[in-house]
Inverse folding.
């Protein structure tokens, strides 16, 4: 029924199914099963967390890690102590039914109910397709706050058995937070490295490759839980560490198996968790206290809103992309509670916590309110506020190249500024990974493969799978590289069109060229030192040419002062011909020699030879008066000399005279802006 699933999230429908099943079992006279904490923590929770950790969008997660940690650690601590303190005040003022609940019990209750639940967040946020930033902030917070929840839960549980809590116990409890969180990450990294190393030797037994991924991940979770460390942190760390190396080693069939088996396993676990929540609500023992339950619900909402507003105000001082009021509202509204809180409360011992049933009732009420009310209204609110949705785009080689380019550019800027930001450390980590870790954990030539080529192979395989699934592979020869046809939709191809096939040798040759010619985007360069700079051999010759040109201009200006007729500017070719063909200039006419080196450029007019005929020691002849302007041919310059700066032969009677009646070379174009500063030689 699509109309129902568009309004009500799947998690709500599953809880309703659980309530109906539990009511049916109870109506028959049987005792409904209750979601036991051992079953939840050992069998139902790990698949969901492994699926989330293995396919975690690492780039968005690392770029927003500081914001996520502040929300997960500081936000959860604030919620726990704010809620616990206010609930203690309510218990003191609430009458005889609540007076016996002490401060430690209320703080324990606050630590259980304060944590955002990853299962509930995944179930709701995946359906509304919120943008990547908000999704990773809320989901990352729900994953990483497990360490805080585990520490506070075990801490207050231990303190409840003490007769007196000292300052040393509080300090040790504070230090245990670092041990639990970092210890869980350390255990996960170790098992992730072992899994990656094992996958290096499984090329002859492909069928059991997926088993190692599941086995080592589950071992990481159990090992962390064994020592009261954070099992969720261990699972996330192992999944993140092993994935790039395991995927480089295993076959494509194994990769597909891991992907779909994890999705199926986590989906089954999620379904069972929400159904069991409904069944346990019907089957469990409840103690309803209006004051306690309503106060819990109200203070949960107030603590969440205040925490998000205060922390975002602080975070925005350091973020480049600020969190807008709409983003803050979605983060606060998306703080859903779920089965982790229920299971932790179910683990409490009746001896020390006689009010467990009342705690369970309050927690179930909060879970139902957040999942039903907030989960059902968040989709229309996202549409109403016009919050940016997730855009489904396929990554391309072009995008990958530009992403790497910007990463290296920002790293270089940080190096120049002397500021070691996260781009600098990320680059250091990538270099260390490429130089040492890949060689140990990836088999064969794949360890030396550049990131771009690896991405190319991944795109190629993905394209091939899409072609097969769309039914278009029958029209395409099997040897064609699918990246070469990535812009062609096989469904719209005409029947008669056949793409040219590439031979295996040709395809391998193309790949070889790509591997050899795609250079590393950033190579280590020698540090800049002005004392070790190599002199440019052309620089001195260039300076000499500029000096000669400057001297020529000065000489030209001096000679213009001696001319009886002012020197004309170089006009357009039409104006020059008109002036030559017009009236005779008299006995003081100047001889303009025209060089043949560049007949179409205005530089061919040699102003060096402009001088009055009378100044050369010869009286002006009548022929000169008749001929007017005389054009002399320049001697061709020898190869290697600069025809611009070399002065022409002096004006003498022996030089060859060219008459005006010679054929006109035609109109010369105007010089363009793009002409070189110094014209080329012959």
């Amino acid at each position: 029924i699509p109309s129902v699933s568009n309004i009500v999230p799947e998690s709500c429908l599953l809880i309703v199914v659980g309530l109906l099943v539990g009511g049916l079992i109870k109506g028959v006279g049987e005792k409904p099963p209750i979601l036991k904490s051992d079953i939840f923590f050992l069998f139902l929770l790990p698949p969901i967390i492994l699926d989330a950790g293995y396919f975690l969008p690492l780039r968005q997660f690392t770029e927003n890690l500081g914001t996520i940690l502040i929300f997960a650690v500081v936000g959860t601590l604030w919620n726990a102590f704010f809620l616990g303190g206010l609930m203690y005040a309510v218990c003191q003022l609430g009458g005889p039914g609540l007076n016996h609940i002490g401060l430690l019990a209320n703080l324990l209750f606050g630590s259980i109910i304060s944590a955002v639940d990853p299962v509930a967040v995944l179930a709701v946020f995946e359906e509304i397709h919120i943008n990547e930033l908000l999704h990773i902030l809320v989901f990352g917070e729900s994953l990483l706050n497990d360490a805080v929840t585990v520490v506070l839960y075990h801490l207050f549980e231990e303190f409840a058995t003490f007769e007196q809590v000292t300052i040393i116990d509080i300090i040790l409890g504070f230090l245990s937070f670092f041990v639990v969180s970092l210890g869980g990450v350390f255990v996960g990294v170790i098992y992730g490295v072992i899994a990656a190393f094992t996958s290096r030797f499984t090329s002859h037994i492909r069928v059991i490759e997926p088993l190692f991924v599941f086995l080592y991940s589950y071992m990481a979770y159990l090992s962390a839980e064994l020592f009261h460390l954070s099992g969720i942190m261990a699972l996330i760390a192992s999944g993140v560490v092993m994935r790039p190396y395991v995927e480089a080693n295993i076959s494509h069939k194994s990769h597909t198996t891991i992907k779909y088996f994890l999705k199926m396993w986590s989906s089954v676990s999620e379904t069972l968790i929400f159904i069991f929540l409904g069944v346990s609500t019907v089957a469990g023992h409840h103690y309803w206290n209006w004051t306690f339950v309503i106060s819990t619900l109200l203070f949960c909402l107030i603590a969440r809103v205040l925490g998000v507003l205060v922390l975002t105000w602080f975070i925005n001082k350091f973020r480049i992309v600020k969190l807008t009021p709409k983003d803050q509202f979605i983060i606060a509204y998306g703080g859903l509670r779920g089965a982790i809180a229920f299971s932790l409360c179910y683990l409490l011992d009746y001896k020390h916590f006689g009010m467990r049933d009342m705690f369970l009732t309050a927690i179930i009420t909060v879970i139902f309110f957040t999942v039903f009310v907030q989960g059902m209204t968040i989709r229309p609110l996202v549409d109403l506020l016009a919050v940016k949705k997730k855009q489904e785009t396929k990554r391309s080689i072009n995008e990958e190249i530009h992403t790497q380019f910007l990463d290296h550019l920002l790293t270089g800027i940080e190096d120049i500024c002397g500021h070691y930001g996260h781009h600098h450390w990320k680059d250091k980590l990538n270099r260390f990974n490429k130089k040492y870790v890949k060689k140990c954990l990836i088999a064969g030539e794949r360890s030396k493969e550049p990131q771009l080529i690896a991405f190319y192979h991944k795109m190629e395989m993905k394209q091939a799978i899409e072609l097969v699934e769309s039914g278009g592979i029958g029209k395409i020869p099997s040897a064609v590289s699918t990246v070469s046809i990535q812009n062609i939709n096989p469904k719209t191809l005409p029947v008669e069109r056949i793409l040219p096939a590439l031979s295996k040798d040709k395809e391998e040759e193309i790949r070889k060229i790509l591997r050899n010619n795609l250079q590393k985007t950033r190579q280590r360069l020698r540090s800049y030192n002005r004392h070790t700079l190599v002199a440019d051999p052309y620089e001195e010759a260039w300076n000499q040419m500029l000096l000669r040109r400057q001297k020529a201009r000065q000489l030209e200006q001096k000679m213009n002062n001696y001319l009886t007729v002012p020197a004309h500017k170089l006009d357009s070719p039409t104006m020059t011909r008109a002036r030559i063909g017009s009236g005779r200039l008299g006995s003081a006419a100047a001889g303009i020699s025209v060089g043949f080196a560049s007949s179409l450029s205005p530089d061919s007019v040699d102003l060096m030879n402009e001088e009055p005929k009378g100044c050369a020691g010869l009286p002006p002849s009548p022929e000169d008066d008749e001929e007017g302007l005389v054009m002399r041919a320049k001697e061709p310059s020898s190869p290697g000399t600069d025809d611009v700066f070399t002065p022409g032969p002096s004006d003498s009677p022996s030089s060859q005279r060219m008459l005006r009646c010679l054929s006109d070379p035609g109109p010369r174009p105007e010089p363009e802006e793009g002409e070189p500063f110094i014209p080329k030689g012959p």
